[in-house]
Design brief:
By secondary structure, the chain is mainly alpha-helical. It is 57% helix and 4% strand. The two termini are 28 Å apart.
Length: 189
């Protein structure tokens, strides 16, 4: 898998989902049970900025990390903030040598290419969370299956923490690609 083009597709698809969220849907519950639609968009926006800054600077200072992971990253323009953050992440990961650069993230130090794989799984999962909560669907089994494959390679039992990646949930063999991804991420489907 060529991770940069895959991430572009994931961000494009997630962007379409966010663009279709109506303001009155921001308070809707999501499969990510602790978060509303706005909370999930805020998380992806903060995460995209965090990944970009890690690639640009090698790490993110703790106080900045607290803001990105726990503060308001959206302001009054959730769509604009989301696209600004994902555009910054695209630019950072696309710079020559970026994927080989070592980055320090809250969950460890690794090459940026590995971090980008984690982002593929995380962003795609949250795109499904938002889509489900707003009456949309992803309709791209290749993206969903790639995110699940990446997740299975990177998210081990010791990485699973309640509220981050809960225990994998049961799902039927013939379940949709969306349901399989959500179940892997610990969502009840």
């Amino acid at each position: 898998m060529d991770v940069l083009p895959m991430m572009e597709r994931v961000l494009d698809r997630a962007g379409t989902v966010v663009d279709n969220v109506k303001p009155d849907q921001l308070g809707n519950s999501t499969p990510c049970s602790e978060w509303t639609v706005r909370d999930v968009i805020n998380h992806v926006t903060g995460g995209s900025t965090m990944f970009a800054e890690c690639v640009e600077q090698g790490s993110v200072p703790d106080d900045r990390l607290g803001q990105l992971m726990g503060g308001d990253n959206l302001g009054d323009d959730y769509k604009g903030a989301f696209h600004a953050a994902t555009d910054r992440a695209r630019a950072a990961f696309s710079t020559p040598g970026a994927l080989e650069k070592m980055v320090k993230l809250p969950f460890g130090e690794m090459p940026a290419g590995i971090a980008l794989n984690i982002a593929v799984m995380d962003v795609m999962t949250h795109a499904v969370d938002i889509a489900r909560a707003t009456g949309q669907s992803i309709d791209d089994d290749e993206l969903l299956e790639t995110a699940l494959t990446v997740g299975r390679q990177l998210i081990t039992d010791d990485f699973r923490v309640p509220g981050v990646f809960d225990a994998e949930q049961p799902v039927a063999d013939d379940a949709s690609a969306e349901d399989k991804l959500l179940a892997f991420a610990g969502r009840k489907v």
